[in-house]
Amino acid sequence: MNRRPPARLWWTSFGLALLGWGLAASRHWLLQSNAYDLGLFDQWAWLVSHGLPPISSMEEVHLLADHGAWMFYWTGLLYWFHPSIQWLFASQALALSLTAIPIWMLAAQAGLNRRLCWFSCLLWWLQPLVFNVNLFDFHPETWVMPGLGLAIWCQRQQRFGGWLLLLVLMLGCRDGLVLVTLGLSLSLLIQRRWHWAIAGAGLSGVWILLLSKWLYPWFRNGEGPKAAGRMFSHLGDNFGDILYTLVSQPWLAFTHIDVGGGAFYLLVLVLPTLPFWRRRSLMILSAAVPLLLVNLNAESSSYRTLIHHYSLPLAVLSVTAAIDGLALQPRRAFPWKGVIWAVMIWVALAKPWFFTGPYLNRINMVGDGQQAISKLTTKDRVLTTSYFVPQISQRQHVAFAKKSQSKQAFNNNWNVFLLNPSQPGWGSKRRIQTDLLRQAKDRNWTCQNWDSGLELCRKPDAKS
Hints:
This protein is mainly alpha-helical. 54% of the residues lie in helices and 4% in strands.
């Protein structure tokens, strides 16, 4: 059969990308996006495009010290052409939708007929995790999900140079993807493809050393990545220590796992593709082991949800495992029962219904927020709520009113407060924002309020 993805698949992918972009942009318009991580990345992109040091004013952390995502520097060119947060939404939706292209290639490579190739793409598009991640702000590792699928295709097609290049690109989008490159190396080791396994493991090891011994200490005054010690303190204090513990004392990876929560996480993760797995699928599933162990060991439950991005590479591996299982059951009829199953799981676990309820809880603030934002300049130093940060993050100084920021609010030269105590948002509290507004008024700041509870206060000597 023709191994090339048909034009109809490309057009379908572009159409779904437009839909995904529209939904993500709508969520943002409804004030449901947040400082972490959309506001962070939007600010970094804007800073890069202006030739300024990409250091977040919320975390005082350099772009490269966050997740070593050097690929994100390319957004500076897009923001230089036109500074818009829509670049992030559009590129994420496009990458997630276009992952169906390498999925098709993998299915054709496995010998599946045209109908089953389409079914394999549907299994990807109908992953609840894929839909939810597209909505949940922005994360640069979504860009390389097509690269992960293509890397698996390359290793099966014996294209070593392309495979290695794709691994490099993956590592450039997030440090955590080193767990995926190590996983791919593990699966190759099991297949006794020694040279490939050694190359993949060597590349992963070199990147880990560069991050933990050079890049992070350089940009973080000797400290490691911010999430390592906080999320995996029982495994180590930095990225390298955590991986060393997993390799040298793997039993420790199982001592802190919440068995009930971990089992539920695994169940909802694999449900869309589980019926199609066979023993042959275990080979590619072995590549998921390092990332799964880390997600199960994380102290934050966000690593074990179908909302956050941490599990996204596992969706690619699970669909590939389904393809390997389907290859053992050649058939001509389209598997309608499989489609019904995937749709049922999507309806149960995807979050489109959020647009009918949870995403509408700030709709009365949208117009007021737009009026308030129109009164700001890019030079203003704004302390606001988490959900307003990505609305105004194209500036050097913006943060949200969490406890640590609020304690020093009047010592850190913030000249504008944009707050709503009735809806304080993530990481803040009504009491904190009420107290900040009270102190601002006591200091004769000029304040304006709206019916939605939104209030903007400006320092007297701050020029509008």
